[in-house]
Structures are given as C-alpha cells and as structure tokens.
Amino acid sequence: MPARRKPRAHRRGRTAAAAALPLLALTLSACGYGSDSDKDDNGKAKIAADAKKIEGLDQVKIGYFPNLTHGTALVGDQEGLFQKELGATKATYSQFNAGPSAIEALNSKSIDISWIGPSPAINGYTKSDGKNLRIIGGSASGGVKLVVNPKKIKSLDDVKGKKIATPQLGNTQDVAFLNWIKTKGWKVDAESGKGDVSVVRTDNKITPDAYKSGSIDGAWVPEPTASKLVSEGAKVLLDEADLWPDKKFVITNIIVRQEFLKEHPKVVEAVLRGAVKTNQFIEDNPEKAKAAANAKLKQHSGKALPANIIDPAWKSIQFINDPLAATLDTEAEHAVKAGLLEQPDLKGIYDLGPLNKVLEAAGEPAVEDAGLGVK
C-alpha cells in the first residue's frame, strides 16, 4: 500500500486510518512465546478476609503477553501486586501471543485491560474510529536489537544484501527495521520484503531455528528472542534504543476498554496503582523481579529461560510508567513512510488522567500525552 502525504496527527482522517487495517491487522505485539489460553493465577495473589470489592465489581479481566517486554504484568501477576490493590475484586488473567487476538478480546469484553505493543494499539484504536480503547499508561521501553551472524555481517553496511528476519509484516519491529533501511538510503518493497535487504517475516518462536539453519543472516527482534540468537552465536550489531532520543521508545503500553474505564474508574486506578508499585518493585529488587517474571513464564510455557538468555534480556528493558507518547506518534510516522500505513488520526488515543492521579498520590511527576489525549 503506497503511503500518501497527509497532515500531522491531529488532522489525520478516519478514512485514511481504515485503509491501514489490512496490513496492521496482522500485527504481533513483541515476541509471544506462550499460550493464547487463559491461565489460572498460582502466584502470590491472595484476597484478604476483610477486603472489599471496588465499586462492587466481582472481577477485572486482565490480558498480557508471556514475554519479557510485558515484565510489569508478569511480575505484578506472580507477586500478587495487582490483587493487593484490588481488594476483593478478583484479578483474572489471560495470555495472548498476537496483538489482534488481544484487541479482539477487548472488543468482545473478554478482557477489560491489557498490556500490548504500540502497533496493535494504533490499529485497534483506528479500526474502531477511536471508540474501543484508550492507552492509559506505559510499561516498557527498549529490549529490541539487530542481531546478526558475525561471520557474514561485521558492520552495519554489511546488512545490505543479507536476509534479516522481523516478527511479522507491519509489526512494531518490522516498521522500525524498514525505517532504518530508509535511513541507510537502501530500497525495499515493504509488503514483499524484497530489495537491497531481504526482510524475512518469521515468527519469533522459530527465528532461532531459522538462524541455526542459515536461512536468515540476522534479525531485528525483541527480547528474549535477541538473547536466544546470541546464545546461538549471533552478535548484537545495533540496539534500537541507540536510535531514539534519551534511548527511550515505547515497546509496551497499558490499554483499557473505554466503556470499562467510564463505568469502573476506581478499578482502573487500582490496576494502575498496582502497575506503578510493580515497576517500583522491579527497580528496587531487580533480581527478585527477574526471578518472578521467569517463574510466571515457566508457568505459561512449561520452561523457564536459562540465565544466559534472561540475564542480558532483562537488563536491556526499562520498566516505566511513562507511555512515551511522542514515540508512539513517531512510530506511526515510520509506518507511514514505509508505505505500510496511511496517516491515522491518533487524537484521543490517550487518557492519562487516572495514571497521573496515581502518580501524584505516589509523589511522582505527571506524564504527558504529546497532544494526543482525550479532551
């Protein structure tokens, strides 16, 4: 789909956004190593005997992806930190491998709140003409790398002519890699992936095997896939964080059904409070938090990540409350420039009021919506 020149984000039209859907509907959020099925919590979540339901609500249904870029959700679930804030309103959890699955669950009311990547959030918002979701917080930055076969690629210029994997056509890492290719002055057809570089769309679950077989020469991927490849002999050629101001860019957001936010604002605040406290727990107890995330991953996938994979992967991700809204807008622009997306209208995609209320109570500074907030 060719890109068309449109006005800036606050003037972008709905018709253009709808045209982007066939491609972005395929989007995956980060890596997705676990199962799509619901999982019962067996971590430390306990409901106190004297606890009360918030707003009389029996449960809040929370979604996330079983991968490290959703570490806040993994740790908060495992350590019972969300449940602690929710009192007798029970937190139930569902896991998803793909962004469209999470958005579908949100639309069908199977979940109320979810951790999700930026591209699915943009797609879900524009597909509903801005009616089904809001981004209410950030969760993670970084954790994406270009890793390559050092025998074939020794410098960034050597990437030309090679076969590089991304998780899926139009996903967050695919867009980032296509944008980087453009900065090098190389040409690639965005849809086919053919050109000066061969962009090979490969599910992260099989990317390590593709690398071992020699069918790809490297990959632009999130953690822990990047560290899995390094364990197979690949080398990190570029950390995507180095391409962004202050080395920060959004990789995971928290979204909510707009109807749920309207009907249960105190429950949403409780989940956000749990997220803020979880991020503080991660900062104060990095090793314990990493172990908690790995324990939850083992529950979902049946196998924990070994130290040589989880240690470097965990270190490369920043767990934050700020949604880094300006970088979401930039990522959308990158998709437009790559020819994968027509200019979307992102005005109103954020409602950071509940988060800023929680942050103020915690003595933390407010976060900004880059002019893309709801009025």
From TrEMBL:
Keywords: Cell inner membrane, Cell membrane, Membrane, Signal, Transport. One of its GO terms (cellular component) is periplasmic space. PANTHER family: ALIPHATIC SULFONATES-BINDING PROTEIN-RELATED (PTHR30024), TAURINE-BINDING PERIPLASMIC PROTEIN (PTHR30024:SF47). It comes from Streptomyces silvensis. It is found in: Cell inner membrane; Periplasm. CDD domains: PBP2_NrtA_CpmA_like. This is Sulfate ABC transporter substrate-binding protein. Belongs to the bacterial solute-binding protein SsuA/TauA family. InterPro entries: ABC_SsuA_sub-bd, NrtA/CpmA_ABC-bd_dom.
